């Protein structure tokens, strides 16, 4: 999959996004508030930095992976995605809204 979307950038969503960017996919993460978007981006950056520190990933690969992820607040940007993975919190009203 070249273009992946992840709905939700919490622990699970950020982890899914990280696996995808390490595999070479371009990932778009959807969040509901700017502060959640910033937290999702920071979560991924921190995880990649841990991988570099542990020697599991070199800095160039981490930088390249990070360049393949972007967080948005606009679901309309997902129209071009080859695959969209839902990783939103288990809140029924939220799920109904997403799938609606």
Automatic annotation (TrEMBL):
A single GO BP: fatty acid beta-oxidation
Pfam families, per database record:
3HCDH_N
Task: Could you list this entry's UniProt keywords, alphabetically sorted.
Answer: Oxidoreductase
Q: What is its EC number?
A: 1.1.1.157
Report which superkingdom the organism of origin falls in: Bacteria
Family the UniProt entry places it in: Belongs to the 3-hydroxyacyl-CoA dehydrogenase family.
Q: What is this protein called?
A: 3-hydroxybutyryl-CoA dehydrogenase
Higher taxonomy:
Bacteria, Bacillati, Actinomycetota, Actinomycetes, Mycobacteriales
